[in-house]
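#dry-run=false #mode=assembly
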Amino acid sequence: MSALLSPEFLARLARLKLAVRRRFAGSAAGLRRSSRRGASAEFAEHRPYAPGDDVRRIDWNAYARLEELVLRLYVAEQDVAVHLLLDTSRSMSLGTPPKVETAKRLAAALGYVALSGSDRVSVLTFGAGLSQAFAPQRGKKQIGTLLRQLEGLCADGSGTDLASSIELFLSRRPQPGVVIVLSDFLDPAGFARPLDRLVASKFEPVLLQVLDREELAPSPGGDLVLEDVERGEQIEVTLDEAAIRAYRARLAAFFESLADWAKKRGAHYGRVSSDAELEVALLAYLRGQSTAGAPAP
Amino acid sequence: MSLLEPLSLAWLGLLVPLVALYVLKRRRTPRPVGSTMLWALAQRDLRAERPWQRLVPHVSLLLQALALMLGALALARPAGLGHVPAGARVFAVLDTSASMAAEDDEGRRIDGARAALRALARTLPPGGELGIVEGAGEPSVIVPPSSDLVRLEAAIDRLDVRGGRAALEEAAALAGERLAGAPAGSRIVVITDAAFAGTVRLPGAVPIEVVRVGADRPPANDAILAVDARANPGEGTPDRVEIFARLERFGGEAGDVFVSAEVEGEVRASRRVTLTPGVPSSALLTADLPPDDAGQAPFVTLRIRRADDRPDALALDDVAVVPSPASRRLPIFLVGAVPESVRRVLLTDPDAELFALSAEALAERSPSEPALDGLFVLAGASPETAPTGDVLVIAPDGPLFGVELPAPVLRPRVMTWDEADPRLRFTSFAALHVASLRPLSLAAYTPLVTTDAGPAIASTSRPDGTITVVGFDPDLSDWPRQAGFVIFFRNLLEGSRGRRAAGGIAPGRIGEALRVPAPEGAEVVATAPDGSMHRSLARGGIAIVDVPALPGAIPVELAGGVRRFALRNLLDAEESDLRARAELVVDDGAGTALAAREAEEPSEAWPWLALGLLVVLALETLWATRRGATA
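#status=ok
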């Protein structure tokens, strides 16, 4: 069906559903409980009758007990907006396979699950700026379009500016919902402030960090000049055991800061190696678990 | 200005790695990464942990290189004799006595003396000259004053131990004469180990400095001080010989030595002797030493070696050579009416063979006949020319070998005698009374015993022997009744016997030139104990051959395949005692003797300055390192 996802994997995904912790007001009827009131079978609350209300919703049993007219309100079932923010900065072009390919497969899988669950899915790519790769759509019929759009994406060679990208995203006044950020989060400006803007804007962030095996566990390589592909900076390193030990200590601290941020804000944080099977991280998220507790490799 | 330690300039080689550390860039492989953010943080963590910081090109490189160059130049000890004015002349008196061959902890003393001489040569002021006088044996100028450093260094390299006793007084006097009229500031530098007893009075007319070489506490030295061999034949052992040696250890602790007697490299006898420092010991070895196929008596080489195999400070006195008793038979030719007392005393010597010979027969001998090799004893009249070899003349009653003598003097009184002469050893003439004496006032003769009327006994040396003249008849004196009479004749016979054992070449001290009787113009070749060969042509019936200062029997080849041996031994306690004990004083001309001034090391402040400079450099580097780590 697609180069990104195998049929077997799609079959397993068909039985899953996105885990959304908060209730959002949807734009159309769906399968998720909304923050709005609607006509589902699930009772929500009573409220006093007011002239103009539908008399068919008056709870007469309550009136018999309370001698007061009250209406029975039911939970509305609507769709949820799922925004997939895909990092396509130059750093995502590195790795074996490239990190952006792993991020695209994750986005495809999550988009497939969301569309299958009647949620509204949009895909935006970001680096130094933001661009719409897939406009908000819903329905299984859009899965093919989504996968084709994702297949056509590549790391565009720009640098990572998470702050400006989030600001551009919010300036479009998107429908509140879940924002799944697929990135390596290697932004010298930091990740906390931009992501806090998402939380403040009533979005539920999901952080899926994609890193290459060499970034997770660098092998000794002698005297090297490490070139930052985004900023062009160079740093001379003798990649011996001591240097690797120091790097891994810093990497572990970085992971811990991401996990702490997510835990304090009730968000999900998962980490994926570009050469690993992404099912584990994906299913952990879909089951409401975190894969960030594991130590850095 | 010159460099006392030019090898220290090798420190400048450190400039290469120093500059390399700054300018060489380590070859690194580029590797793209998503972000250097975490690597930069990790590197900062590492720098905080490590004591080293990354080398960064810095202006301080120039300063540090400059400091290093200054330090190296300072360690090279550039120095000049500031107190010696330009054009001054320096005469070095070099002690080349046998003790200078000793090896202390600091190396051979003669090597230390050479180093001092080189330092003198290199620190000559502009226009200055250096000359060298040898201060042993017969002092002589061995390097005339020169400012040519190459020539001086070549001459210094050739210098070696001459042997014998130091003769610093005579050498300093000679240097003083050569400095007469020299520019102001000229001086004498005496280089010696001062390993001899007594006081050396140096002339005070020119400034004198003393450079001492050798350790204050030299290592122990074992020495052979005397050696003798006597026949002791027995039934069945006709060639049995007893070899006597007197040994002594100077310095160190008591210990054992092995004494061995060798003939042509083969050990014939050996024994172990315990030596106590300062206490002479004796060793007696017994061996059978038959003559060789040609009937020649062998030479016995005596060697000592420490039982603990530790090195000996001086090797020259560890070997001594002595002829075997078979060569002791001495023919004595009695010419004329020899006094009865003399005849009797000669007969008491078991190794002497007396032959009577008339004066006419002696005079009629043709020069083509083989020379009589022995001791001639002439009584009364003497021929026009003296026979070859050793000659003793008793109571000459006419011209002595053609030279008229003064008229006889009755009852002269003995005034002095030369106790240092080997013939007068252990003798005394204080109680000698002579009836009549013909005073031996002859220009070529050295007085041995002097009376108020003139010399009573005199002597003169020739290349092939000595002539000893007794100016009175012993039978007309009380001399035969004194013990000194017998001792005098025994000493005389021993000297003659030693000369004859050496084939006519007088035995001598190590390093002393060989004086070989040979036909005019004949070539003489001597092979030294170290195997080196030395040649010389005879002049005036004698060939003088210089040989290295080594003990041993030196074979001398003459024309016609004739081979003789010359003996060279140290056998001198004065030289074997290596402790510095001489007192060197300078006569100030007013009768006051002052201790000679020790030479000062030039420009000693420079090495200390250089050391301080290097310390400052190290502190600067340490400070810069710590500052970089905390930045």
